[in-house]
Amino acid sequence: MASLDPMMTSPKVTLFGAAGEVTGSCTLVESAFSRVLVDFGMFQGAPEQELRNAEPPPIDFAKLDAVVLTHAHVDHCGRLGMLSRLGFNGPIIVSDATSELLPRVLRSSATLQFVRVEEHGAGTAPSFEVLEPAHLVQSSRARDVPPVVLFGHRDADRVAKMVRAIPWSAWHELPGGMRVRLHHACHVVGAASVELELEHDGARRRVLCSGDIGPFNNPLLAAHQWPERAPDLVVMECTNGHRSLREQDAVRTFDAVVHDAVANGRRLLFPVFALGRAQQLQQHFARLSRDGALDGFQVYLDSGMAVHGATVLERHPRLLAPGPQRMMLRGESPLEFPQLHRLTSRSQSEDLRSIRGGCAILAGSGFCDAGPIVRHLLDHLEDEGTSVVFTGFQLEGSLGRALLEGATRVRVNGHERRVRCRIERVEGVSGHGDREDLLRWFAGFPQRPTRVVLNHGIADARSGFSAALATDGTTVHAPALGEPVLF
Ligand SMILES: [Zn+2]
Questions:
Q1: Among 170, 199, 339, 419, which residue has the fewest nearby CB atoms (within 10 Å)?
Q2: Which helix (H) or strand (E) segment is 368 a member of?
Q3: Alpha carbon of 135 to ligand 1 centroid (Å)
């Protein structure tokens, strides 16, 4: 085999995103013979963060042998739509379920980019300001920073045609000589840890990219998998490397919030992300429904993508935990219950405005910065009979974060509202494992890995988690953006 880079003394891994931050995942794995990119996600958050997406990393995309995707969350897959424009023409390797999610994620991302440009031109870009209390006063700057279009529908469709689904747990040969294998990551349906094997100096070396690691007590998804021997290098996420969350408390808190809403006719608004959180909450509502606790209390899933995510999950019973899998084999869905309404159109979402009395609405986006949740908030922030229930991390500078921190008067898209509804928090219903889960996952290899690269974690998470791992002969790297790690 001819060497691409005869000067390369060791294989290397370079993070071109999610290095000391939690979005923009992009990891390049190189040997002297082959180059493979794992994930190509968007940077998310403040407008200036999102502008970084328009600057592609210094990679010769035409010389990549393959791209492998861990899962269909935008911070891991959101820039794949740029690949054909950047000169990449090879396969995009994904799991079975991810291959069914990805085309729709890319298409809706393209739509959203055009909508944002149009809104900016028309001066109608979503915005919010916190007016009271004084110490929280702030305004979003979405209207000041012009959005960019990274790719269009045609690019998204072209890239979707490059997607190749491979079976779980079996080696698959890539062009250029590397091999790839997918292991369950228990994060969202189809989420994988990606193992690559490459040749160096006549020996085979293995690197495993964890992707996002789900909690061990995820009641919905099949359990984590590990390779039969520890890889030479582990690239590991540590989003919650500094935080402990207790799922048991989360379930109890969730149940109490819902019981109260059912008994007192309250309206619950859940800001959710479409893949992961929405399905987990659906499963919890389904459990309460089977227990007879919902009665006539209706639940509305107001997100076309979340409805699609549930459908894909139901098509892959083998990716589910044993209990939900048994239900699927009996012809039932762990996500279905009589009080559930899966909404797929804007007009169905508008119809919710005329509903009186208690109900639950699960709507995106999870940070309350766009999507139908904004409309529901405008309708109900001043309503004392409503609770806004946050079930996950809220990005700094988002409306969700401001409400959680106690904003009492806000202006959303030009409309001023007093916050009279209840703000509730159910911490721990998460697709991300906490610190204990991450440590347990790391201990799951048959031998302790000797070399680890930490990605997906802010500085506190990386330094705290690094200290926990850097014992017993394990070397831990927390490289800067673009800084290669040899192995
Ligand atoms: Zn994810």
A1: 170
A2: none
A3: 33
CB 429 within 8 A of CB 284: yes
Residue 53 forms beta bridges with which residues?
A: none
132 alpha carbon – ligand 1 mean position (Å): 34
Residue count of the chain: 487
Ligand 1 centroid to residue 457 C-alpha, Å: 13
Residue 157 CA, ligand 1 centroid: distance in Å = 22
Question: Which alpha helices (H) appear in 21-69, and where do they start and end?
Answer: 47-51
Cα(73) to centroid(ligand 1), Å: 5
Query: Would you state the torsion angle of the CA atoms of residues 74, 111, 275, 197, taken in this order, to the nearest 10 degrees?
Result: -40
* Structural domains of the chain, with CATH: 12-124+143-243+431-486 (3.60.15.10), 247-425 (3.40.50.10890)
Look at the block and give the residue holding tokens 């290899």.
445
pLDDT digits (tens, 9 = 90+) for 266-325: 999 999 999 999 999 999 999 999 999 999 999 999 999 999 999 999 999 999 999 999
How far apart are the CA of 212 and the centre of ligand 1, in A? 5
pLDDT at 3 over 80: no
In 84-127, DSSP assigns E strands to 92-94
CA 116 to centroid of ligand 1, rounded, Å: 23
State both tokens at 23: 């979005």
CA of 131 to the centre of ligand 1 (A): 33
The tokens of 185 are what? 């990551």
- CA 469 / ligand 1 centre spacing (Å): 22
Question: How many whole angstroms from 25 Cα to the centroid of ligand 1?
Answer: 10
Burial class (CB in 10 A: 0-12, 13-18, 19+), 162: middle
pLDDT tens per residue across span 312-370: 999 999 999 999 999 999 999 999 999 999 999 999 999 999 888 899 999 998 889 88
Sequence-distant (≥ 6) Cβ neighbours of residue 282 within 8 angstroms: 299, 301, 310, 335, 340, 362
